[in-house]
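in:
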């Protein structure tokens, strides 16, 4: 019904606070946008790990006080998840918690391992038995097989055998470990609260619990936290970092700071650059809410065209909304969005959105705006055409489903019935995202636009997609 890319998940961890599980709950609440399928928390009281995981939103899964009574301790990790495989079996929810010969360990993962199938086949052939479909479980098996003495060395040994995107938090009875892959595809942040260390996918989680944002975990960095404090390691071969540009475009909350910049500021700059590249005579600028809002404001400010709330979003429609009968399926996007006729009628309208995936939603939105009386509808997209699937932790359709993989801009404009269509250029995107960055800072992964993949993956058919978990 709503044609957007989906991020895989978000992670949170805290060590050294008496309200660890409660704070993890709040942290996951702030990260809910990163995954709405399932969630879970694992807590440690220093002797034992306890877990609560289920399918559903954070507010539904953790609505009873009894749940938190079963999660005592001063250390905890949590996870919100969106997946494409695995069904609704709770065993596929994270954090994954296992017992092995050195005790218990739990892990929560944001990302996707491109060699997971290869590693899983090797492990199964040597006798390993998997209980989930998650690529994350490969890391657990590799860690359990390690003969290294310290937890840090076992984690490093395991992670050196996998490739791809991972921002991870591990929890044992006495330690919390956080690690970020050398490319730094997914964000991971470090904070402090009342003497406790906090880890989160985004800084908006720190804001909710009133924690201090210290810094980002660097690409290729691992931190180990225990009762003696925190130690940082950089055990992996150094590569050119390539954080995901789509975190700025859509995934991260606009009030978060990631990759050294506040997301809201960058999205507004995308809109400004878009106005410079694709100016048009119009009467009003409006956004496809909510993710298109900052770019639309930037477009309006740069162009001088007034910004108005022309589309109103119904925030009470869940992503699993089921239309009750075939006869009313034509309502489609109108379930979620409704135009404001007084803003639109008789106007030349610029509609700003963050991306076009299949084109189906954009087509419905343009028609909706026309039906509300618009004289002209000009679509502006604050990213380049999405023409390639992602293999690093984003649920992307296969390439043949991506409209930009087989149609040029004019053809897409005709399909969505817009008077004109303008995408932000890759050069403009990088320029806008790089404002006030250190010149030595990394570039970005923009493989979904360019097909230039920073980490190689198994050779696939042209229209296929790696399994995401």
């Amino acid at each position: 019904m709503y044609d957007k890319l989906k991020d895989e998940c978000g992670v949170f961890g805290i060590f050294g606070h008496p309200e660890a599980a409660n704070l993890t709950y709040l942290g996951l609440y702030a990260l809910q946008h990163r995954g709405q399928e399932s969630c879970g928390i694992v807590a440690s009281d220093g002797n034992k790990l306890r877990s609560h995981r289920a399918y559903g939103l954070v507010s539904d899964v953790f609505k009873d006080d009894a749940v938190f009574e079963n999660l005592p301790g001063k250390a905890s990790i949590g996870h919100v998840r969106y997946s494409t495989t695995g069904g609704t079996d709770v065993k596929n929810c994270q954090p994954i918690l296992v017992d092995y010969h050195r005790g218990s360990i739990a892990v929560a993962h944001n990302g996707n391992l491109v060699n997971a199938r290869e590693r899983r086949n090797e492990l199964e052939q040597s006798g390993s038995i998997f209980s989930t479909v998650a690529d994350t479980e490969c890391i657990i098996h590799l860690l359990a097989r390690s003969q290294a003495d310290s937890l840090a060395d076992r984690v490093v040994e395991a992670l050196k055998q996998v490739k791809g995107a991972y921002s991870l938090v591990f929890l044992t009875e006495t330690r919390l470990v956080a690690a970020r892959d050398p490319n730094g595809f997914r964000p991971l942040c470090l904070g402090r609260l009342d003497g406790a260390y906090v880890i989160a996918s985004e800084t908006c989680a720190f804001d909710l619990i009133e924690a201090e944002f210290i810094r980002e975990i660097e690409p290729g960095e691992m931190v180990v936290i225990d009762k003696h404090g925190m130690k940082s390691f950089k055990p992996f071969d150094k590569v050119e970092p390539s954080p995901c540009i789509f975190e700025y475009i859509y995934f991260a909350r606009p009030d978060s700071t990631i990759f050294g910049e506040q997301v809201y500021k960058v999205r507004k700059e995308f809109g400004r650059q878009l106005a410079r590249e694709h100016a048009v005579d119009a009467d009003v600028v409006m956004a496809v809410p909510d993710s298109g809002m900052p770019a639309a404001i930037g477009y309006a400010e740069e162009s001088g065209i007034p910004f108005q709330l022309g589309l109103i979003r119904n925030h009470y429609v869940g992503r699993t909304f089921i239309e009750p009968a075939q006869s009313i399926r034509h309502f489609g996007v109108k379930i979620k969005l409704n135009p404001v006729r007084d803003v639109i009628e008789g106007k030349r309208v610029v509609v700003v959105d963050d991306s076009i995936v299949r084109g189906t939603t954009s087509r419905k939105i343009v028609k909706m705006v026309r039906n509300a009386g618009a004289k002209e509808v000009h679509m502006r997209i604050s990213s380049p055409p999405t023409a390639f699937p992602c293999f690093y932790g984003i649920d992307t359709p296969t390439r043949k489903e991506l409209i930009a993989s087989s149609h040029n801009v004019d053809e897409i404009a005709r399909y969505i019935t817009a008077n004109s269509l303008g995408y932000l250029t890759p050069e403009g995107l990088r320029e806008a995202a790089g404002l006030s960055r250190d010149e030595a800072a990394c570039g970005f992964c923009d493989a979904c636009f360019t097909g230039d993949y920073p980490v190689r993956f198994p050779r696939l058919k042209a229209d296929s997609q790696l399994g995401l978990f």
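note: Confidence is low (pLDDT under 50) at residues 319-329, 435-441, 461-469.
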